[in-house]
Amino acid sequence: MIIDGNNAVFGRMATQVAKKALLGETIDIVNCEKVTISGKKEVVFAKYDRLKKMGVPRKGPFFSSDPEKFLKRIIRGMLPYKQPKGRDAFDRIKCHVGVPAKFEGQEIVKLGDKVLRTNAVPVSAICKHIGGRQWKKQS
Hints:
- The chain is α/β, with parallel strands linked by helices.
- The protein contains five helices and five strands.
- Helix content is 37%, strand content 12%.
- Strands 1-2-4 form a three-stranded parallel beta sheet. The chain has a two-stranded antiparallel sheet with strand order 3-5.
- Helix 1 (10-22) links the parallel strand 1 (2-4) and strand 2.
- Helix 1 (10-22) crosses helix 3.
- The two termini are 21 Å apart.
């Protein structure tokens, strides 16, 4: 299954992705840099600043500033990843920046019909804020 992350609300999308992966489906999320996290910009940035500064550099917790790794890390929290079924489900989830060429002619599913118009921050802005670079669509 190929899921379009363009303007998708992250929590709602991630719960459905985790459930489908646990049921045995292979999930590819495209446009993961355009997924939005609901909340005011200052509050969301403060939350991820706190998470980034938590712990120690050698032992973690580790948060990547790449949008695809950032999303996958949060989806991992919705899976029982310390058990074999959770590890297998986590391996079936793939995230991509933009739409790769191999998915061009295939059907891309848009999960959920709710789109936030206000108080939403794209994942690319969060990743840039915590130390990543600006992400552009891959060719």
